Amino acid sequence: MKEKIVFILGAGFSNPTGAPLVDGFLKEARDIYFNENEFLEQVEKDFFGKVFKYHGDLAKARTRTKFDIDNIEDFFSILDINIASSKKQSFKEIRRALVYVIIKTLERLIKEDGYALYYNFVRDLCDLSDQYDYSFVTFNYDLILERALENGSCLYNYCLHPDKFPIKSFQKKVLKLHGSSNWLICNQCKKVMVLNHKALGNLYSSSCSSCKQEVIPLLIPPTWNKRFDSTFIENVWHFAFEELRQANRIIIIGYSLPPTDIYFRDFLTLCLKDSDPLRKIVVIDPNNSIKERYESFFEADFSRRYLNFIQRTFSERSEGWGITAKEMIEGELDGSIDGY
Predict the structure, then answer these.
(1) Of 194, 219, 244, which residue is a domain's last?
(2) Secondary structure letter of residue 300 according to DSSP
């Protein structure tokens, strides 16, 4: 029987393509907005304008409290608190604008020449398919993983519509807990549509295929407030729970386990509670502070028995092609820190 491997992917996984990390996301978005050489459609300028007007107003609070205004998690979290504590429609409009700003920023910063790393990663996994059954739980809005899978002729399933589109044994589960830049949800009937990455240019003009009403990108904030606007997202979280609970090995790449994402911390706790098949958890991240964060999250005895921390970036390898899938799964790369 094949071993079950689950990859948990955070912003550090996508960063080698130019995709921004969490803590500098809004700085990168601001540079796009104020760069005269960056062409933006008028509707896009309006979205950026709303977000950075709110951003500027929020900056006043930094004279009284310490917070990172360019950190997308902190910014999203504060905006959601504003929405929850105020009846003003304007905050909801800012949140809607922020979703489009996120997608446009990713579109502008992700470079085509960065994909080779991911094509090799998928090819590695295909070579190991006789030994391992693997799936992906990702927090990333971008389509880097999907494009790499498509390049390797690997079929995948988002598990949004398991009744309508049953998961086949040859499909890899790609479970995007925070939504995706190519998922659209109808404001009226809550139907979810999935666009091909080549059709993202139609984002502003798309309408629901059922009721013809407006559709907007389906992104879930990376914060305390997980507002599931659709049962389809609940399906994704359900499958993620089962995958993690049944995993033999969990490989975490570039996910910082942020303090603001209390929901996923509790979710992971429940997944691990009955995870009898679990043999190893491998965390890949270059930052010592992230190692300490995982150390404080897990019990010391559990850490000694199951955890292996590889203090490197996903792309870091002497040959220049990144850590191989085999090295990740086995967790025996030189420079790793077994059990902390």
Answers:
(1) 219
(2) H
Q: 206 and 279 share a domain?
A: no
- Domain hosting 203: range is 179-219
Please check whether residue 262 is in contact with residue 77, taking contact to mean a CB–CB distance below 8 angstroms. no
161 and 14 housed in the same domain:
yes
Q: Which pair of tokens denotes residue 33?
A: 């907005």
Encode pLDDT of 63-112 as tens digits. Answer: 888 888 888 888 988 898 888 898 889 999 999 999 999 999 999 999 98
Indicate the pTM of the whole model. 0.90
pLDDT of residue 318: 40
Residues 251 and 273 in one domain: yes
Six-digit token string for 165 = 């589109």
